[in-house]
Amino acid sequence: MSNTQRADGIAYYPGLAGQRVVVSGGGTGIGEGLVTAFAEQGAEVHFLDIRKAPSEALVERLEERLAARTPGRVSFHACDITDTEALKGVLGQIGDIDVLVNNAANDDRHRLADITQDYFDERMAVNLRHQVFASQAVAPGMARRGGGSIVNLGSISWHLGQPGLALYETAKAGIEGLTRALASELGAEGIRVNCVIPGNVKTERQSRWYSAEDEAQIVAEQALKVRIQPHHIAAMVVFLASDAAAACTAHNYWVDAGWL
Ligand SMILES: NC(=O)c1ccc[n+]([C@@H]2O[C@H](COP(=O)([O-])OP(=O)(O)OC[C@H]3O[C@@H](n4cnc5c(N)ncnc54)[C@H](O)[C@@H]3O)[C@@H](O)[C@H]2O)c1
Predict the structure, then answer these.
(1) Is 49 domain-assigned?
(2) Which tens digits make up the pLDDT trace of 67-76?
(3) Is residue 12 among the annotated active site residues?
(4) Relative to the CA of 205, which ligand 1 atom is closest?
(5) CA atoms within 13 A on the CB side of 132
């Protein structure tokens, strides 16, 4: 076993220990997997979410599970990331950070005929706008620390043209453009910006959209016959956050089990 591989099979990046990491929407779903993975690396993890109960329960679970290994600290910040001033306020309180994962989103379904201007603005706020303002808030601190890593969560949905998600997909398409532009603008300061594109990942929320039969159908359409779990996404995000990805920026990294 190499010294970058732990007994539990998780890749370990020594440089992440003690790094200050922020994850938006970290309380449940993929975000929970991200928070857990960074805590396992010994990072100082801060996550923002609107769901208090599961977020506080996650902190408790991680404190119990990781206490024996003297890991990094995990802090929950109750924050609605669509409130830009509140978002900036929380990020300002946390201080200079090394890694930002723009993960929070909401995939409510809608039909073109029902979209109003207010609904359009709300969908952009929850799925796209906060990625811009969180990046804006943390970039100067990352530059002061000599660099950093921003990972934006995109989505396979618009690449597949899935129905019922026009605004979510519009926002997710924009995130790929945002990633390219920010990577270019911030690269000289050592800040890397990448986008991770999940396929369909098994989370509590996805079970409201997909039955067991639907899930089996998705797996059948994938090249790899595995059900993607949050830890599969977290493995890629942690890699992109680490020094092992020192030359990786401005690109998309797919974790979709080859959904064709
Ligand atoms: N699960 C999938 O299959 C899948 C597929 C493609 C892309 N993604 C992307 O991965 C990321 C995580 O997805 P997920 O499936 O874990 O989503 P999820 O809905 O299960 O979890 C999202 C988290 O963000 C939080 N959140 C939502 N709105 C918020 C707000 N206004 N302020 C603060 N927190 C808020 C929620 O409380 C929740 O904890 C998202 O960017 C999503 O678009 C997921």
Answers:
(1) yes
(2) 766 555 899 9
(3) no
(4) 20
(5) 16
